[in-house]
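Hi R.,

Here's the input for the adenosine-5'-triphosphate complex you asked about:
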Amino acid sequence: MDDESSTDQDADSPDTSQMTFGKGSDPTDSSQETTNDDSGGISIRDRLQTESSGGVFANKDLVRSDTIIDEDRIVGRDDQLGRVVDNLKPVLQDEGIPDMLLSGPSGTGKSLIIHAVCKQIVELCESQDKTFGVLSINCEGPKTADRAVYRLVKAAADDLGVEPGVPQTGVSTDQKLERLYELMREHYEGVIFILDEIDMLEGPYQEAEYNSLIYQLSRARKLADFDGPISLTAITNYADFMKELNSRAQSSYNPDDIFFDDYDANQLRSILKMRRDAFEPDALAGDVIPLVAALGSHTHGDARKAIDLLRWAGELAERRGGNTVTENDVREAQEKYTENRRLRHISGISTQKKLAIYAVAATGHYTKERLEWIPAGPAFKTYQFIADTMDMDQYSRETFVNHVTEQSTYGVLEFDRRGKGRGRGVHMYFSLSEDPETIMETIREDSRFEDLAHENATIGAVVSERLTRFRNQNY
Ligand SMILES: Nc1ncnc2c1ncn2[C@@H]1O[C@H](COP(=O)(O)OP(=O)(O)OP(=O)(O)O)[C@@H](O)[C@H]1O
Ligand SMILES: [Mg+2]
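And here is the predicted structure with adenosine-5'-triphosphate in place:
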């Protein structure tokens, strides 16, 4: 997130975030605007924070693929789990541990397994009065090896509750590494560096940055003056990642290569069964889990997608007001998300990007004219309003526009700069490829957004006001 900056609301926009509505009030009437304290109405924030009742889910987090699950829910990865355990076990006897490379397709348990084992090692070390450092970064974020090293310093500092002690910019990579080694010497008896999605660290130069990161870290054993065991563990989707490395990185990094293959239908079924308690006791029709597992194994063998499909089916069941998830819900979810690449893509983007797209779709949807080309200015104001309503971070207009235009790569929309009329300047406009309402519904299937369904009138009012202003003035 370090490239993005928050921004204040523009001075000319009314602060609509604190609007409260008494029962029966007309939310489109701006004379109803009051503060939270004195109206006795229900604030938007309160409404957003109230759990929706009923439905098919008992603990929906269990079918969110970003939830960190307990060890006893891991099934079907005995070999890989065994290898990782055997490799890291020597830490408990203060003996050396090997480097590892975990590779395999998406959703096959690589991140899950390494973190599950490391968690146990940390706890066992604690019981021996030792501190084991799990310094894990995702290499999708940092663009250079230098930035990645800084993230490792930061990971250690956060883990230890101390200051990073070096700035992110303005000092050399060696100085950052030195600080990393210092933190290791002072606080840890053993360390594992986990470089997740290592292949994403390409950087701006011809030679990918992961080469230098791997080279520099693998020399830590020699240079850090650190007595304890160290493992450099990288994670990637590419089975041939080692071949991508330059000779310097290859000669310093000799990992135990552990491959994670696709799950078959039986494995997916066991994984899903272990999360059955995400649903109310009788909410899953008997054939639902086998069907999700079968569909998943035919198309990908990816546990993340299978878990998502099960959740989507549950969400569709709730939307039609049902108490049971049926085979039909699964098929509908499969069709909706698997066939429609754009909607599936939207359902998988980050919360901030969903928010940006939601604002654009709402701006298109709530105008009487059903605009084909939606102006970025009013859409950004709608974005600010919704972000405020949901108590979410607000980014600058530039970041908002970047988040939206980025989706053109996935066919979600087109964008264009065009004139507003003679002499009235050139503005950025977006044109959505799907019906705005369908896009909004898709985003609201993410529970963080589901309560926005209650905000139609308010958002509609903001959209109308902003579009009227847009037409009447330049901004
Ligand atoms: N063997 C398993 N048992 C239970 N849940 C699993 C298993 N494997 C994967 N999952 C679940 O599937 C999701 C994806 O797993 P994970 O994040 O480990 O995939 P990955 O291999 O790291 O994928 P990517 O390459 O896309 O990062 C997670 O929600 C995880 O809990
Ligand atoms: Mg992963």
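One thing worth noting: The two ends are 28 Å apart (CA to CA).

Cheers,
M.
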